[in-house]
């Protein structure tokens, strides 16, 4: 390192120069030297000779060390200068140190020269190396910096603190904003935020500047196209080439914001559901499985005072000790919980117990929920007591319906089976009675009459049973038509006259001839009249029975009056009810199914008429029924529409209205 | 000439009664007690009227009616249906096949005789 050392000697005294040279040689330094005596020579040598070190006499004619020092400092600041002087004066020394001379050597102490030179050179070299290193470091740093800057995912903007204009921006920010790197340099803070937000942005900028905060959150940023996104901006001050800037790292939080908004919305939704749901919603957490929340519906369901009170329980504490299957609630509950945790959900029936001790059946849905690190169970409980009751009711109703239908089918079949032989018997009797099988005597006639009467009776009983079945299952059908009520009454009286005569009773008809034809089911009304008249005959020992008809405003009124035993006051209520035959003494001999009046009632009701009785025990009975003159039986929609022809939506609506009016 | 009536019904007792009644009225009466007999009798006899029990077992009544209607020799013969159950569906089905009247048991004999007369006069 001593090799090729270049020493510039600035000395006017040749003797001194020689001395210095000898000293240098003595020190074993490998060097080349040059001697200059004047300023001009000095300047020239600095450029041409390019010394590594300068040894300079303090004062020379026309030149001095301080001067030389000035020159060197300006142009060759790394080149050390040692003052070699005869003079010693303190002020000289101080001067030179002030000037930055590396050392000061006295001419008569030249022994110090070589070490001084070595030291100076070494120091100069180190300084040079350091500078070199610094330069390299700076270069490297800058490259590194550039690499980070250019490739950063976050957008980076460097803004001048004073002007708030951008010094530069990285690729990421350019992409975010939609500007080119060149365009960025023409922009400032004011240009990249929505106008209304600028005051806020500036205030955050200032705070970041002062070092008050580093992170400014939710900053609205405006793109070149005017669209806005939100960013978190992390900023710090930096110095570039002596100037202060604020460097800001922009992170687009739109996604995060959207996610937050979504979360907030879903949290709000959940909250609102939680509060307003009529199902009990609650949460429970491991390991104790105490309840950690319960909505208002839960409070209501378990009849606790408030949510806080609810939270002291575990599920099995709000249940009876044993479940209906005999298992202990605590054990079974823990099992249900464990299954839900394992499978993600569990749906099952559970018997709970309210705070007041009341037990109830519920459907429980447990769902496992994971919220970050936390895992817990969400539960929905629905009180199904009502539901079960309804289910049972429906099941019963279905069973009843099925049973009724079966009964109907059965009785239809049975009555058919019963009617056939009855028909044969009747016809057989009639044929003989009419003499078609030969002449008969009075006694034979009498016997046959009795037989016939009873087959008729049997027939009526079978009809009653079937009618009753139909009535019960709602399947009683009617055949309405324009009929003459008086005609019908006469028919019945004719049919019943024999019966009345045999009992010695007088059966008469008192008809109002002015009654117009009205709409009713002839066979059914015959049935009603037959029922009333046969009852009258049954319960009258002597006297008469009268059937009368009369007109009233909008009704036709039929009355069957008898002079029989009457009906007790307390029995009047039960009259038209099914199976209600009135006290055994009265009816034991009379027989009958107890269905007649109930069926008559049903028939008259179907005609939208009324049926009732007036009677006093021992004073005979009067049975009334009315049939409206203007009677429209309920036409089913299908029938209404068929009348209308082609069907449109309008027709359907009109038809529905028509149907409603009828009801 | 006396009109012939063919009674198709599986109830022999009933047929006995009805036959007596009809004969007294002056009609010639024949009877068939099952579907098979019925069709062959109808073909042989070519009666003026058929009284058909729709409720014969295994839907036999309706089948007989169908057969009568498809057969060129018998399709013209008026049929009065007798049914034990007042089943709207069955009645509608038979009406579609073409009958001159139907009666539901228990039969009002007077009305039946009236109807028979009416139908035969029309013929």
Keywords for this structure?
A: 663 residues; alpha+beta; Rossmann fold; Beta-Lactamase; 20 helices; 24% strand; B: 123 residues; alpha/beta; 5 strands; 48% helix
Write the layout of secondary structure elements.
The complex is a heterodimer of chains A (663) and B (123).
Chain A: E1 5-10, H1 14-26, E2 31-36, H2 39-48, E3 53-57, E4 59-60, E5 63-64, H3 65-75, E6 81-85, H4 90-99, E7 103-106, H5 113-151, E8 155-160, E9 166-169, H6 171-177, H7 181-185, H8 198-210, E10 215-222, E11 228-240, E12 243-252, H9 254-276, E13 280-285, E14 290-294, H10 296-302, H11 307-310, H12 329-343, E15 345-353, E16 359-371, E17 374-383, H13 385-433, H14 442-472, E18 481-483, H15 485-502, E19 506-510, E20 518-520, H16 522-538, E21 544-552, E22 555-562, H17 584-587, H18 596-606, E23 610-615, E24 621-628, H19 637-644, H20 649-662
Parallel strand pairs in A: 1-2, 1-3, 3-6, 6-7, 19-21
Antiparallel strand pairs in A: 4-5, 8-9, 8-12, 10-11, 11-12, 13-14, 13-17, 15-16, 16-17, 18-20, 21-22, 22-24, 23-24
Chain B: E1 4-8, H1 12-24, E2 28-32, H2 35-45, E3 49-53, H3 60-70, E4 79-83, H4 88-97, E5 101-104, H5 109-122
Parallel strand pairs in B: 1-2, 1-3, 3-4, 4-5
């Amino acid at each position: 390192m001593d090799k090729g050392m270049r020493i510039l000697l600035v000395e006017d005294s040749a003797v001194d120069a020689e001395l210095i040279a000898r000293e240098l040689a003595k020190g074993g330094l490998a060097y080349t030297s040059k001697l200059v005596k004047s300023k001009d020579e000095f300047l020239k040598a600095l450029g041409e000779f390019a010394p590594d070190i300068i040894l300079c006499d303090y004062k020379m004619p026309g030149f001095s060390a301080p001067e030389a020092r000035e020159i060197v400092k300006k142009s060759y600041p790394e080149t050390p200068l040692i003052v070699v002087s005869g003079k010693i004066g303190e002020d000289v020394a101080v001067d030179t140190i002030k000037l930055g001379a590396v050392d000061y050597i006295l001419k008569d102490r030249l022994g110090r020269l070589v070490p001084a030179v070595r030291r100076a050179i070494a120091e100069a070299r180190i300084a040079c190396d350091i500078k070199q290193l610094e330069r390299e470091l700076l270069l490297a740093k800058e490259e590194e910096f550039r690499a980070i800057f250019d490739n950063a995912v976050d957008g980076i903007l460097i803004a001048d603190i004073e002007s708030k204009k951008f010094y530069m921006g990285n690729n990421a920010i350019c992409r975010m904003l939609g500007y080119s790197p060149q365009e960025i340099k023409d922009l400032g803070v004011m240009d990249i935020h929505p106008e209304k937000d600028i005051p806020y942005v500036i205030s955050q900028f200032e705070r970041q500047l002062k070092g008050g905060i580093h992170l400014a959150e939710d900053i609205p940023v405006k793109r070149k196209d005017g669209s806005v996104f939100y960013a978190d901006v992390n900023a710090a001050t930096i110095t570039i080439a002596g100037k202060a800037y604020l460097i800001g790292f922009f992170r687009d939080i739109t996604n995060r914001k959207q996610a937050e908004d979504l979360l907030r919305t879903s949290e709000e939704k959940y909250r609102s559901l939680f509060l307003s749901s009529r199902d009990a919603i609650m949460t429970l957490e491991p390991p104790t499985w105490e309840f950690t929340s319960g909505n208002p519906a839960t409070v209501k369901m378990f009849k606790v005072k408030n949510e806080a009170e609810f939270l002291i329980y575990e599920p099995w504490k709000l249940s009876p000790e044993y479940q209906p299957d005999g298992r202990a609630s605590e054990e079974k509950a823990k099992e249900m919980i464990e299954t839900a945790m394992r499978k993600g959900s569990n749906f099952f029936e559970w018997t709970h117990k309210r705070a007041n001790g009341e037990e109830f059946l519920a459907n429980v849905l447990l769902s496992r929920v994971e919220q970050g690190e936390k895992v817990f169970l969400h539960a929905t409980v629905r009180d199904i007591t009502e539901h079960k009751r309804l289910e049972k009711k429906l099941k019963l109703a279905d069973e009843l319906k099925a049973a009724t239908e079966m009964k109907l089918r059965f009785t239809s079949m049975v009555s058919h089976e019963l009617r056939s032989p009855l028909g044969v018997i009747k016809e057989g009797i009639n044929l003989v009675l009419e003499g078609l099988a030969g002449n008969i005597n009075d006694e034979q006639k009498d016997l046959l009459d009795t037989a016939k009467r009873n087959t008729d009776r049997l027939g009526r009983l079978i009809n009653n049973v079937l009618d009753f079945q139909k009535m019960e299952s709602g399947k009683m059908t009617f055949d309405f038509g324009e009929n003459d009520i008086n005609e019908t009454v006469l028919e019945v009286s004719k049919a019943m006259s024999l019966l009345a005569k045999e009992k010695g009773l007088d059966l008469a008809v008192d008809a109002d001839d002015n009654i117009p034809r009205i709409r009713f089911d002839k066979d059914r009304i015959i049935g009603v009249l037959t029922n009333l008249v046969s009852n009258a005959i049954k319960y009258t020992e002597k006297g008469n029975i009268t059937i009368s008809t009369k007109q009233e405003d909008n009704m036709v009124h039929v009355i069957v009056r008898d002079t029989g035993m009457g009906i007790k006051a307390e029995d009047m209520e039960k009259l038209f009810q099914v199976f209600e035959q009135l006290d055994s003494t009265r009816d034991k001999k009379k027989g009958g199914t107890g269905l007649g009046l109930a069926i008559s009632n049903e028939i008259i009701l179907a005609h939208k008429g009324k049926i009732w009785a007036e009677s006093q025990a021992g004073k005979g009975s009067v049975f009334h029924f009315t049939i409206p003159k203007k009677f429209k039986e309920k036409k089913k929609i299908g029938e209404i529409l068929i009348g209308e022809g082609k069907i449109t939506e309008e027709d359907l609506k009109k038809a529905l209205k028509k149907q409603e009016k009828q009801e | 000439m006396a009109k012939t009536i063919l009674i198709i019904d599986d109830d022999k007792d009933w047929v006995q009664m009805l036959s007596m009644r009809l004969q007294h009225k002056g009609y010639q009466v024949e009877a068939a007690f099952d579907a098979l007999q019925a069709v062959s009798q109808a073909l042989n006899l070519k009666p003026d009227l058929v009284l058909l029990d729709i409720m014969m077992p295994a839907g036999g009544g309706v089948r007989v009616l169908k057969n009568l209607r498809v057969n060129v020799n018998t399709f013209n013969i008026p049929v009065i249906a007798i049914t034990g159950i007042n089943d709207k569906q069955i009645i509608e089905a038979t009406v579609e096949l073409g009958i001159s009247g139907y009666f539901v048991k228990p039969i009002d004999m007077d009305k039946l005789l009236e109807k028979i007369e009416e139908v035969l006069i029309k013929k």
